[in-house]
Amino acid sequence: MAFSEKNLKGLIAATFTPMTSCGAINLPVIQQYVDYLVQKQNVTNIFVNGTTGEGLSLSIQERKSLTEEWVKHARGKMDNVIVHVGCPSIMDSKDLAAHAASCGADAISAVCPSFVKPSSLDALVLYLQEVASAAPSLPFYYYHIPKLTGITYQINDLLGKVKQNIPSFRGVKFSDVNLMEFSLCVHAYKEYDFLYGVDEQLLGALAFGAHGAVGSTYNYLGKITGDLVKAFEDGNIQNARNIQFCIQEFLIYVFDMGWGLPEFKDIMSLFSGIPLGPSRLPLVSSIRSDHHDAIKDRIKKMDSV
Ligand SMILES: CC(=O)N[C@H](C=O)[C@@H](O)[C@H](O)[C@H](O)CO
Ligand SMILES: CC(=O)C(=O)O
After folding, report:
1. What confidence tens digit (pLDDT) does each residue in 192-225 have?
2. C-alpha to C-alpha distances, 75 to 31, 85, 104, 162, nearest whole angstrom
3. Which residues participate directly in catalysis (predicted)?
4. Are residues 235 and 284 in contact, defined by beta-carbon separation less than 8 angstroms?
5. 218 φ, ψ to 5°?
6. Strand bridging mode 45-48 / 169-174
7. How many A from CA of 57 to the centre of ligand 2?
8. What is the pLDDT of residues 37-65, one digit of tens each?
9. Residue 301 falls in the annotated catalytic set
10. For residue 220, how far is its CA from the centre of ligand 2 (angstroms)?
11. Is 52 annotated as contributing to ligand binding?
């Protein structure tokens, strides 16, 4: 069975889902979006239909159409398309996993259902095994985001159980601030890829050996974050710190305004010029047109770092 041997590394943009003003998915925007990431942000990996892409607010048919479109336009231009297939129903996740494989995606990833949570760590492993088995040829990444799912099993405990049970298991998208837990995993499980997901402290995760990073800010801060990674790799830690601090300042501004995902989507539209449209209910953005200049100024300021 064909099983991709390439590892995931570098920056991976967690894409927003383009929508029309009426709230339908807007597929024709995707080609422009892919070109923007490659040409303007130097980002050649995407994670689609995840948290940032409002994957759990989309219908299964919408998720399939989006996957097809992202894969189609990324082909020949990008290195990897990772499709998030987590759903409240395991049947839907298996359906999406098989679909991702049939369209030529490079990898899949899933959160565990969290309205009805796994009753034990073993139950979580069984769930992941079942989903991964629907696309055995694709590398599988567990998506750990305890702040949103409330599923808090230690990842190093989980990894001890997946090896024998999930042959396609390839790593973790680790979206949590606990860097010690992250470090323990990187150290003990050298065979897996660890992709960090808290953009505001990526430098800490790089120091602990992160192989790559998946995040929403890499849509518009991909280039500057690429400079951060390069500075780190070159041993220029002071420069890497300066860049990370700038990114933190921007995010502190966003959080202090009380903003989150729907506002991040507006920020991306504003900055890139790509019409991503609104988020889907129950998300509503509170950015108004009189915020636009301040946001643009703050992002431009980072270019001078
Ligand atoms: C909760 C959430 O969406 N996390 C994203 C990825 O996992 C991050 O990319 C954040 O958007 C980013 O770190 C800003 O907080
Ligand atoms: C941010 C992220 O990784 C996601 O959108 O799933």
Report:
1. 999 999 999 999 999 999 999 999 999 999 999 9
2. 11, 20, 9, 31
3. 143 (proton donor/acceptor), 173 (schiff-base intermediate with substrate)
4. no
5. -70, -10
6. unpaired
7. 14
8. 999 999 999 999 999 999 999 999 999 99
9. no
10. 14
11. yes
With a 6 Å cutoff on the Cβ, whether 214 touches ligand 2 is yes
**Catalytic residue check, 173:** yes
N-term to C-term CA, the chain:
47
Spatial separation of the C-alpha atoms in residues 11 and 223, rounded to whole Å: 10
Q: Ligand 2 in contact with 51 (CB < 6 A)?
A: yes
Does the structure show a pLDDT above 60 at 167?
A: yes
φ, ψ (nearest 5 deg) of residue 207: -60, -30
50 Cβ closer than 6 Å to some ligand 1 atom:
no
ipTM given for this complex: 0.95
User: How would DSSP label each residue in 106-121?
Assistant: SEEEEPPP-SS--SSH
Q: How far is the CA of 199 from the centre of ligand 1 (A)?
A: 6
C-alpha distances (whole Å) from 215 to each of 12, 90, 158, 174, 288 are 7, 25, 23, 11, 24
Domains and CATH numbers, the chain: 10-223 (3.20.20.70)
Are residues 100 and 67 in contact, defined by beta-carbon separation less than 8 angstroms?
A: yes
Active-site choice (36, 94, 142, 173) = 173
